Amino acid sequence: DPETIQASANNESDAFVESLLDKMSVEEKVGQMTQVTIDLILKDNSTTEIDPDKLRKAIVEKKVGSILNVKGHAYDYDTWRTILTSIQEVAKNETENSIPILYGIDAIHGATYLKGSSLFPHNIGMAASRNTDLVHEAAYITAFQTRSSGIPWDFDPVLGLGRQPLWSRFEETFGEDVHLVTEMGKAAITGYQKDGLKSNTAVAACMKHFLGYSVPVSGKDRTPANISDLYIKEYLLPPFQEAVDNGVATVMINSGEINGIPVHGSKYFLTEVLRNQMGFKGLAVSDWEDVKRLHTRHKTADSHKEAVRQAVEAGLDMSMVPYDYTFYDLLVELVNEGTISESRLDESVRRILKLKNDLGLFDQPISPAVSKEKLFNPDFDKAAYTASVESMVLTKNDGVLPLKQNTKIALVGPAANAYGPLHSSWSFTWMGNDESQYSEQTKTFHEGLVEVFGADNVFSRSVTEWDNEKNYEIGDVSNADVIILALGEPPYAEGPGVIDDLDLDEKQLQLAQKAIKSGKPVVAVLFTGRPRVISSIEPGLNGILLGFRPATFGGLAAANILAGNENPSGALPFTYPRKSGDVIHYDHKGTEEFREDIPNTYGNDGYRPQWDFGHGLSYTDFKFRDLVIKNKSIAKDGTVELTVKVENTGKMAGKKVVDVFVRDHFASITPSAKRLKAFDKVYLDAGESVELNFAIPVSDLAFIGRDGKSVIEPGDFDIMIGGLKETFTVK
Ligand code: BGC
Question: Which ranges carry the Fibronectin type III-like domain (predicted)?
């Protein structure tokens, strides 16, 4: 039976790993725990050509077990395979135990570093689509392209909650809600690892960044988070736990610190929580240079050597060093002088070898080549286009949209004529800011509008360089029927994406004001990675479409939505703030609804986001009715079963996101206004209706109680769907 076969395979694999481990020297073990960047093995003035001496220094002399990244920009398929082949040949033929190299890459929102690939929207857009099938498919496609290039390890997905909109990596999150992030994360991981790690279409996924990276107090990248134990358990851990339960192979650690303790040096988080409590058995890799930074930035270690000791003692398996061999040298010293035991190394090396073996790298260090037709299957483009369409959120429409076929469009703004704002981080380069690197099939928003409305109908003076003054001039719009403002954010990643203010910048706001003053209808299309506050211009805009880094086909998708060729169906995966100092999440506590301050005497109407979590308009109308809870009095071990009808009462076919919220009336820990507990997305033709069923186990209504343990408290709860509400009781 399959269980016996699996168990004997595990035994065989364990026996193989143990026999290998027995043969390895301390140096080889430490080498396995060392990861360096490809820069260290390339010829001095080349971005792609391997220097054989440097390669031998890394793999033979320093016994390095893992390499990552690209130098500067994406490589084409053949280059990847050539690089990986040379690396694996040296590992196989010139080292004592012929251990293959584990190559890792950031294939984020598609095959980031594979030249010619089509990219998917960033996670924040994928979460807006509420379409877990699309997330799963995107991950599967990405895995196939990555593995076929010779790379078996992908540093994705981000499972941090997007609750700090200033944070420059907000676009990499699946939004602010714990249930949404958990479900989307699971869909991605099971897509990456589909059919098992040995499969030629799979990569080892990497949940990251464990833990608390996404909620820095200041909003700045890699800065401290102060988080209570309750918050960690209630909000931050569940997506990671779900990933562990679904067999995620690896984890990357948060570069920041929690309550004054850098996570890379925290035995509590890396061993007690991650391993002992959550049951994670896979490989834990550091983030970029973070071991050294325990000394240079966090200053919990008074030397680099002490930093290595702290991280390894805390439970780290592999250090992304990545620019030198200091980690290797220092860890060998620490073991030789007896500060760190060899058995401690064995724990980590076991995990590393097991992953290499699970991936089948010992038998087949690089997966078989595939044809270009297979690699860039047109169906992948279709999936990426669909994802772009479904990721966009129409937040305002006074009737101006969809635009009629021959509408004369004046297109202005900095996001009109560049690829970067549609993509941002991890797009052929780290920051996505090298316009020369984008795939041929990519279209700017301007090109998309031209394709859909015709060159004769679209006028634009916008240029590629974000700051160019031309992008902030309105020009002569007398012949235009509508002004389309292409606004948003330039591309960025990590540190360079730090901002001090959520408000959209003054230059763009002034441009919008000029457009509004012209008296023409104005539609704003924003390409951003996080909510930028636009409340000062919103009242003057006739339509607003949000594109969350919708990538390769994002420009075309936006144009088709404006034309009504596609019906928008995205729903906000976060609460869009009205004021930069008023970031309150949809699942806020009761006291956050009260505002008695002057001049905002809102009373109990103090929760006033620009747009609520889940908001998203369509060109058709959907009506919800007949919300029925089958069992209104339920035991703690029971399941809430409910049905609701959704009808497309408008004139156009469309998809509708259905978010199911639960509100606990009273609880010993202040209950949230509501919490998302389930979601779905349905397609309905005009006039069509459907009855949806949801089953929510009462255990999903548990929360972390005052004693730090999960508890289900009896009492009344509301179910809320599309403006309907019903109450049930837990006994
Ligand atoms: C990022 C990680 C990424 C790593 C490797 C770091 O700067 O924080 O998310 O996986 O670089 O490129």
Answer: 656-725
**Res. 91: pLDDT tops 80:** yes
What pLDDT, on a 0 to 100 scale, did the predictor assign at position 3? 80
Smallest CA-to-CA distance from 533 within 487, 468, 589 is with 487
Q: Which pLDDT value is given to residue 11?
A: 85
Q: How far is the CA of 451 from the centre of ligand 1 (A)?
A: 36
CA angle 226, 317, 198 (to 5 degrees): 115
| Residues 634, 600 contacting (CB under 8 angstroms) | no
Give me 729's structure tokens.
């009781």
287 is annotated as an active-site residue: yes
Cα distance between residue 500 and residue 478, in whole Å: 37
Buried b (16+ CB within 10 A) or exposed e, 331-369: bbebbeeebbeeebbeebbbbbbbbbbbbbbeeebbbee
User: Is the shortest distance between the CB of 106 and ligand 1 below 6 Å?
Assistant: yes
Q: What are phi and psi of 623, to 5 degrees?
A: -120, 135
User: Is residue 444 a contact partner of residue 417, using CB atoms and an 8 Å limit?
Assistant: yes
For residue 518, give every residue at least 6 positions away whose Cβ sits within 8 Å of its Cβ, in sequence order, or none.
Answer: 474, 477, 483
Which residues touch 505 (CB under 8 Å, ≥6 apart)? none
Confidence of residue 602 (pLDDT cuts 50, 70, 90): confident
Angle between helices 554-563 and 378-391 in degrees, nearest 10: 60
Q: How confident is the model at residue 616 (pLDDT cuts 50, 70, 90)?
A: very high
**Position 202, amino acid:** A
Query: Would you give the DSSP letter of residue 211?
Result: T
Q: How far apart are CA 393 and CA 533, in angstroms?
A: 16
Task: Check whether 13 has a pLDDT greater than 90.
Answer: no
> Which of 121, 153, 145 has its CA nearest to residue 134?
121
| pLDDT (tens digit per residue) in 252-287 | 999 999 999 999 999 999 999 999 999 999 999 999
Reduced to 3 states (helix: H, G, I; strand: E, B; else coil), residue 111 is coil
Ligand 1 contact via 287 beta carbon (within 6 Å):
yes
Does position 26 have pLDDT exceeding 90, yes or no?
yes
ipTM of the assembly? 0.99
Using the predicted structure, report yes or no on whether residue 2 has a pLDDT greater than 90: no
Q: Which residues contact 231 (CB under 8 A, 6 or more apart)?
A: none
In the predicted model, what is the mean pLDDT of residues 102-109? 98
Q: Could you identify the atom of ligand 1 that is nearest to the CA of residue 208?
A: 9
Taking CA atoms, 689 is separated from 22, 283, 435, 650, 654, in Å, by 65, 47, 45, 11, 12
CA of 151 relative to ligand 1 center, distance in Å: 16
pTM of the model: 0.98
Burial of 280-297, coded b for 16+ CB within 10 Å and e otherwise, reads bebbbbbbbbbbbbbbee
Tokens of 258: 């929690």
User: According to the model, what pLDDT value does residue 604 have?
Assistant: 80
Which of the following is catalytic: 287, 290, 317, 664?
A: 287
Q: What is the pLDDT of residues 50-89, one digit of tens each?
A: 999 999 999 999 999 999 999 999 999 999 999 999 999 9
Any idea which residue has 């064995």 for tokens?
346
CA-proximal residue: ligand 1, atom 11 (nearest): 288
Place of tokens 């053949």: 78
Q: Which two tokens stand for residue 196?
A: 């098992």
**Checking DSSP bridges between strand 261-262 and strand 257-258, what pairing results, if any?**
antiparallel
**CA gap 221, 646 in Å, rounded:** 42
Identify which has the larger pLDDT, 599 or 191.
Answer: 191
pLDDT at 571: 98
User: Are β-strands 710-711 and 703-704 bridged in parallel, bridged antiparallel, or unpaired?
Assistant: antiparallel
Task: Establish whether the linkage from the previous residue to 368 is cis, with ω within 30° of 0.
Answer: no
DSSP secondary structure string, 629-671?
A: ES-SEE-TT-EEEEEEEEEE-SSS-EEEEEEEEEEESS-SSPP
Cα of 398 vs centre of ligand 1, distance in Å, is 42
